[in-house]
Design goal:
This protein is mainly alpha-helical and 159 residues long. The protein has helices at 24-67, 70-103, 117-124, 128-136, and strands at residues 140-144, 150-155.
């Protein structure tokens, strides 16, 4: 007869002793469920955390505004802010009205004249025919000299 207590008296072990033997999908589902339920648990505490934050803010507001006399400085600061906002608004509206009266009826927006191939050829020191040929090419390689001038233009054939 065996002695009592010789059998394994430890409680049943976990079902999964080796999570590394789980498949990828089982680990992914387990991780997602764990994350979801942790977030749910934290979300259940949010109302209490919010209430604590509001209570702390209210207490700090009371101390700084009423006990320490900060309400006078706050009102003074708000009046300074209001004056600055009014001044900036007045200046911008006055400037806008001045420009409206000064430029009404005039359209100063004009398109730039198109650059002709002859002007480009003159600027680059090339012939107008070569500039027209370059404009017809889809892909080109432009080789430049040390001074930035164009040495050669080669077309890349299309495939």
């Amino acid at each position: 007869m065996e002695k009592s207590g010789s059998w394994n008296s430890t409680p049943c072990s976990l079902i999964i002793d080796r999570p590394d033997l789980q498949s990828w999908s089982q680990r992914a589902i387990s991780g997602a469920l764990t994350t979801f339920f942790w977030l749910l648990w934290l979300a259940l505490w949010m109302p209490l955390l919010t209430l604590t934050g509001w209570a702390f803010f209210g207490w700090q507001f009371k101390v700084h505004m009423f006990d320490l006399g900060g309400i006078g400085g706050f009102v003074e600061l708000i009046s300074i802010y209001a004056a600055i906002i009014f001044l900036i608004s007045f200046v911008l509206l006055t400037w806008a009205k001045y420009n409206h009266l000064r430029f009404r009826g005039m359209d100063r927006r004009k398109a730039f004249p198109s650059v002709t191939p002859a002007a480009i050829a003159t600027m680059l020191g090339r012939s107008e025919e070569s500039v027209l040929a370059w404009q017809q090419m889809r892909v080109v390689i432009v080789e430049h000299g040390e001074a930035g001038d164009i040495r050669a233009v080669t077309a890349i054939p299309q495939m």
